[in-house]
Every structure is written in structure tokens, then in C-alpha cells.
What does this fold into?
Amino acid sequence: MNINFQNKVVWVTGASRGIGRAIALAFAESGAIVIASARSEENLKKLSEIASGNIHTMALDVTNEAAITEKLACIIAQFKKVDILVNAAGITRDKLIMRMSNDDWDSVLETNLKSAFLLSRELSRPMMKARSGTIILISSVIGITGNAGQANYAASKAGIIALTKSLAKELAPRNIRVNCIAPGFIETDMTAGLSEEIKEKIVSGIALNRTGTADDLTGAVRFLASDYAGYITGQTLIIDGGMVY
Ligand SMILES: NC(=O)c1ccc[n+]([C@@H]2O[C@H](COP(=O)([O-])OP(=O)(O)OC[C@H]3O[C@@H](n4cnc5c(N)ncnc54)[C@H](OP(=O)(O)O)[C@@H]3O)[C@@H](O)[C@H]2O)c1
It folds into this structure.
């Protein structure tokens, strides 16, 4: 399958590291015009140095509503449209519930879930006008199974699944598809802090007997964003090497 995104404008948030970075590079490789955003300008600079395709970087904190509006206006002024949004920005603040502060809860919900709401709301306007668009949100298997020590993260990722289904229904009449992926254990900075013992335990529960890499996700994301997935909306695609059945 050869997926080509020539002349498509793709906005990837959380693109300075990990999963978002791999997705941004993959879209650029497939011919898209990519807007890669995150907070760290330094990491974004490194990304644009290694990217072979058409990548434009932009500093943006997805919890800053005013900045989202402002940056979208800049993107529309320069590129006229956004065809595809991938919201990969995300954080964890793992703690058992008794020790979880309001700030631990709020920061995870704001970064992981509210950002998806804000970006989808702002982008739905130009997409509805164009009667075309694709939104891909990032959930997690944790949003399906739950996990001790991750009540905030699990709630944010379960929220992404419900948000995806609702937006899919609401935006379908305007030819906008909304789907999410639910990755399992992917080797990135987010999972780097886990001990070898815990990793081994997780791997023992993965049918393919290995952890995933960010590159394991890029084919599925491009498929969902492409015309090959033209009749798919409101879905959660689990990409976990066989953890959740
Ligand atoms: N790794 C896994 O096993 C796994 C599994 C399932 C789902 N996921 C999800 O996949 C997504 C990417 O995770 P990852 O593993 O690639 O994590 P990561 O390596 O820690 O990268 C997180 C990315 O999000 C950005 N980010 C964080 N807070 C932000 C904010 N307020 N505004 C803008 N950007 C922000 C970071 O950039 P800056 O720090 O430069 O802003 C970075 O680019 C997250 O939604 C995560 O929940 C990960």
C-alpha cells in the first residue's frame, strides 16, 4: 500500500519527542506538509535538522487556549488549511490515589484530554468550511484497562475514546473523520523511567513478546489519516502487540 500525502497539511502536536516525533517524520516522508509543535524549541530544532521532508516547527503549549487560537490563525494564513490533526502531546503524573494531588489530576487531564477538545474545536471550524478533514487522537490501552497508580492518566485516555466517538458522530455530516489509536507499551521518554523488572513483567503479557517502538505506530496512523480509511470513523485502534483482547 502506497500512501501519499502530497499537498496535505498535517499538524502533529507533541512532535518534539517520542511518538509524535515519529509520526511527524513519517508524514513528511510520505509527502505531507507537516507542522510539528511542542513546547521545547530546542528539540523541535533538532527535528527540523534531521527531517528530509517538508517540516515546519512551532512552539506551542497545548494547555494554552489563546496560543492554540493564535497558532492556528498563523497556520491558516500560511498554508490555507489543515487536512489532518494528530494530537500526540501527553504527560503522566503517576501516583496512588491517596497521594495524587489536584495538580497531578488537573495537569494530566488538561494536557491529555482538554487539549484534544480545544484543538478539535478550533480545527473543526476550518475543516467544516472545507467539508473535509481527519482528526486522530492518541488514547492508550490504559484508557481501556485502567491501571493502579494511573487514575488521572487512565481517565484522560478513556475520555479520549469517548471524545473520539462523539466527535465522529457530530462531524461526519461535514465529511470529517475522527479516530484514535490506543498504543500499548511504547519505548519513549514516557516509559523510560520504569525498572527492568516492571518492563519484563509487562513484556510477559504481550503476545508478540516485545515492547513497541514509536515507528510501530506510524503505519496505522497514516492509514487512518488516508483515503484508504475513508469509511472508518469513531474507532479506537489498539496497537499493543497483543496485550488487550
Ligand atoms: N509511550 C507509551 O507507551 C504510550 C502508550 C500509549 C499512549 N501514549 C501516548 O502517546 C502520546 C505521546 O507519548 P510519548 O510516549 O511519545 O511521550 P514523550 O516521549 O514523553 O513525548 C511527549 C510529547 O508531548 C509533548 N508535550 C507534553 N506536554 C505538552 C504540552 N503541554 N504542550 C505541548 N506539547 C507537550 C512533549 O514535548 P515538550 O516537552 O517539548 O512539550 C513531547 O513531544 C501521549 O499522549 C501518550 O499518553 C504513549
